[in-house]
Amino acid sequence: MNISISLGPLAALIAGILILAVPRLLNYIVALYLIIVGILGLVGPGAEHLRL
Prior knowledge:
63% of the residues lie in helices and 0% in strands. The longest helix is centred in the middle third of the chain and has 18 residues, at 26-43. The protein is an all-alpha fold.
């Protein structure tokens, strides 16, 4: 039996638990998520590169 875990849902689960435990972490978790998604969007495998 193979068990595979995706990173997105696992990160969401951990973030949700941390937010419930320490609500003040919400700002930092959201900011970190947006930064990571932005960087992956710019340099990730599906990003279209600008050619000037």
